[in-house]
Specification:
Blueprint lengths: L1 H7 L1 H26 L7 H10 L4 H35 L11 H15 L7 H20 L6 H25 L8 H5 L7 H28 L3 H6 L4 H23 L5 H13 L3 H25 L8 H23 L1
Helix pairs in contact: 1-2, 2-4, 2-13, 4-9, 4-11, 4-12, 4-13, 5-6, 5-7, 5-11, 6-7, 6-11, 9-11, 9-13, 12-13
Length: about 325
């Protein structure tokens, strides 16, 4: 029955192929990420280490360094892509992104305060970052509200809120200059030194976020019809917006807590996937999650191997990739005005 449905609907067939392609690409980038590095591990040795689990040097490299780093990277990319997808759906604006509208900066200030003032309480970082993201989101909504939310006002408010919290991070660095060495790479955005502890930090929030977004996908589809039409079919627009924005803040905050200020993933991935599968969030969300994970893991692999033995923080690499894409979207949007 499903096979007949797919064959009869070319759009559904394309969406299914994109989803399968995303799954394959994620698997390939994860294998590449764990086998490439300062010590290259051939696939045969990787497979032997995975199946035989002998305490060899390769086993230690894989299970203590690379596998947790790749898992953290994949979950970070997935969370940021989902957060960007949700925000773009709520605002009906392809320029919306956790970094651009100030959510990441709010989460970053809160996380940085914990890391600098209470370094022994690292397990609290995701929850504190979530609170910071909610505060930033509330400020953006408050500043941009004028008989409703206008996308351009929200982006401008997000830039202002992001700048404010960016200044707060600079102030923390000035007043606690003796304690910020551990946060330098975090500010640039990267996964150096990530361990199983970081996997434990982000995994519960990722699971909550994935389940929540899959439940909320049909409500995001309803919001695309416009507020009046969504209300006419029984959707509580205000309640759904609050629920989905809270979910986006949770996803972005969990990513910021383990990866630092990693930008543009939530902007680039949903927009690219929308061009492939359309605006149906039942397909857009899972495809964005897969390709977001693949993008971050792939970018991290390139960032740590391209200039070996020097490791470039993946946040810098993503900035060089994402900034031109953002300018392209901005120019394209202005051309339509």
């Amino acid at each position: 029955m499903i096979q007949t449905k797919v064959s009869e609907d070319p759009r559904l067939k394309k969406r299914t192929l994109v989803m399968l392609a995303g799954l394959v690409i994620v698997i390939l980038t994860i294998i590449t990420g764990v086998t490439f590095g300062a010590v290259k591990i051939p696939f045969a040795e990787f497979w032997a280490a995975m199946t035989q689990k002998e305490m060899t040097e390769n086993y230690q490299i894989l299970f203590q360094i690379r596998i947790p780093r790749v898992i953290v990277g994949a979950l970070t990319g997935m969370n940021l892509a989902l957060a960007g997808c949700i925000l773009q759906g709520i605002l009906r604006n392809p320029l919306a992104d956790p970094g651009i509208i100030g959510v990441s900066a709010g989460a970053g200030v809160a996380a940085m305060l914990v890391m600098v003032l209470y370094p022994e309480q690292t397990m609290l970082v995701p929850m504190v970052a979530f609170l910071g993201a909610l505060i930033a989101t509330g400020l953006v909504f408050l500043l941009s509200w004028e008989r409703g939310i206008h996308p351009l006002r929200m982006i401008l408010a997000g830039v202002a809120v992001g700048a404010f919290f960016g200044g707060a991070m600079s102030a923390i660095m000035v007043f606690h200059s003796d304690k910020i060495q551990g946060t330098v790479n975090w500010l640039a955005g990267g996964f150096q030194g990530r361990s199983w502890e970081h996997v434990k930090m982000i995994l519960p929030y990722s699971l909550i976020g994935v389940i929540g977004t899959m439940i909320g996908s049909r409500y995001l589809n309803a919001l695309q019809l416009g507020d009046d039409m969504a209300k006419s079919i029984g959707t509580n627009v205000e309640k759904i917006r609050f629920y989905m924005v809270t979910l986006a803040a949770l996803l972005a905050a969990s990513a910021v807590s383990v990866a630092g200020m990693l930008g543009f993933v939530g902007l680039v991935v949903p927009h690219m996937i929308r061009m492939l599968v359309g605006s149906d969030f039942e397909y857009l969300l899972p495809c964005s999650a897969l390709f977001g994970a693949a993008l971050v893991v792939g970018a991290d692999t390139v960032a740590r191997t391209a200039f070996s033995p020097i490791e470039v923080p993946v946040g810098i690499f993503m900035a060089f990739l994402g900034a031109p894409f953002f300018l392209y979207l901005l120019k394209k949007g202005l051309r339509k005005e």
